[in-house]
Amino acid sequence: MNEAIRKPYLWAIKQWLPQRAFWLGIGLAIAIFVAYYSMFVDWKGKWFEWTGYYSHGVLVPFLAAYMVWMRREELRKEVPAPSGHGFWLIVPALLLRILGHIAPSTTLSSISFLMLLYGMTAALLGWNYVRILWFPLLFLLFMMPLPGVLFDEISQPAQAWSTGVADAILKTIGYETRRVGNFIYIPGGFDLDVGVPCSGFKMLVSMATFAAFFAYYIGTSLWRQVVLVITALPLAIFINGLRIALIGIVGTKFGEEAGYNFHDWSGYLVLVVAFAALFQVGRLLGWRR
Questions:
Q1: Which of 68, 102, 129, 179 could disulfide-pair with 125, CB 3.0 to 4.6 Å?
Q2: What pTM was computed for the model?
Q3: Helix (H, G, I), strand (E, B), or coil: what is residue 80?
Q4: In whole angstroms, what separates CA 267 from the centre of its chain?
Q5: pLDDT tens digits for 198-240?
């Protein structure tokens, strides 16, 4: 091709591609929304359920977007290199979504959605982008409700541990409590029935989500990031046990109504305390940001 003709031709192609990519992205977003609509509705129900355990889920996409923004300089330096191998993830992901819709299983659909995001990133941008974005994409797992079996496996031990911590705290400060299973009797006081909603599961998943984001944000070494996330789990159980003990103390000293009122709003208070404690752990581990 003549050089005089070739340069304007290439310029026209470069101008056309971004516009085409934009409309392709819009079309793909609409197609994904339609294909996964029922799953998104199920997620929304779990996020905004009054007595639910996944209210943190609505924040996860925004935290993931911020993590992507943190890598913006690396992303700018990369040259898109679309890979057909991405379809090795896209095709199974779509088949899994069909199976999840037929079953029906939100868990299968959730796994399918994550696979699809990785596959599309590789297919449209290349594996170098997957390498940079693998954790922000994986972080989206925190907005997905756990399957019932896994929920039971986590919530039941958490319930017992939280009850044990609360009982130990009350005994330490002088209350002659008697524990029977997940029930704490306070003689002449406000007895505590530690049900599944008070098990600490919600605190566990909220703390694990924040710890994972915080570990990524502070930019320290990998082993310190792992320590931070691991530390968040026993910290969540201890603080939830402290909350239960405080409910017993308030109910005993100020009456049953005060105990129930403290129960209703104390979750927000202890969450702030938990985040502050995690913040201090991050400082001890030597954050960079």
A1: 129
A2: 0.82
A3: coil
A4: 18
A5: 777 888 888 899 999 998 988 778 888 888 889 988 999 999 9
Q: What is the pLDDT of residues 83-98, one digit of tens each?
A: 888 889 999 999 999 9
Judge contact between 259 and 250, C-beta under 8 A: yes
Return d(Cα 167, Cα 214) in angstroms, integer: 31
pLDDT bracket for residue 20 (50, 70, 90): low
Q: Would you call 103 helix, strand, or coil by DSSP? A: coil
CA distance 56 to 38: 20
Average pLDDT over residues 16-40: 74
Task: List the structure tokens of 117.
Answer: 């995001």
Q: If you write DSSP's letter for every residue of 166-216 in order, what string do you get?
A: HHHHHHHTT---EEETTEEE-TTS--EE--GGGSSHHHHHHHHHHHHHHHH
